[in-house]
Amino acid sequence: MTTRAERVEALAALERRIVECRRCPRLVAWREEVAATKRAAFADQTYWGRPVPGFGDPDARVVVVGLAPAAHGANRTGRMFTGDRSGDFLYASMHRSGFASQPTATSRDDGLHLHDAWVTSPVKCAPPQNKPTTAERDACAPFLTRELELLPWRVVVALGGFGFGVVARHFDIRPRPHFSHAVEVALPGGRTLLGCYHVSQQNTFTKRLTPAMLDTIFQRARVLSAR
Q1: What is the pTM of this model?
Q2: Residue 224, by phi and psi: left (phi above 0), alpha (psi -120 to 50) or beta?
Q3: One CATH from 3.40.50.1820, 3.40.470.10, 3.40.50.150, 3.40.50.10240 for 4-225
Q4: H or E segment to which residue 184 belongs
Q5: Closest CA to 142 of 170, 161, 107, 168
Q6: What is the edge-to-edge ordering of all strands in the sheet holding 191-196?
Q7: pLDDT tens, 29-82?
Q8: Alpha carbon of 29 to those of 85, 127, 146, 189: distances in Å?
């Protein structure tokens, strides 16, 4: 069992390793091309253009796992689900549920703090068309593995089938569980994998995922994490 100070130090060391990573040539080329060409609305901004580490509370009992940084969101701002509408939807719910200090996330220095939660992704670089390859997923796996080793979590909230599958594979859950919204899968040590539709605009604009549905997920995560 590590102390909080040891955990903070280890997470900081992991962040440095993540930010410096250049393992996947396709992802390196794409994230840097996006950072150089930019979107017109952000033409005056300096893009992060590097792998995006997880962030949050080192004492987190709830870990939120997405897919990968958005090209003009986290790849621009350097923080997961920050600077795009998916993040607005996610952090508004986390704020209502008591996991986030504020409902918005615009930049790395906007004052946002998470309480009892950590937000991360299985793939740390923005992929073309938001679709990492199997090899890229596997190359990045040690980073998420290390996060799960260091954090004292009880629940993983997986946003979408990709993250859900990565976590199930990590724990070698057999038979492989089928992803669906609000599905709960028992993990070793009395922990839980909780599925949730991804907070992508495709889901939120069509009301496949509503604010009330997401709030229910985080309320359930809080109950499960207290066990």
Answers
A1: 0.98
A2: alpha
A3: 3.40.470.10
A4: strand 184-187
A5: 170
A6: 55-56, 117-120, 62-65, 155-159, 191-196, 184-187
A7: 999 999 999 999 999 999 999 999 999 999 999 999 999 999 999 999 999 999
A8: 25, 10, 25, 40
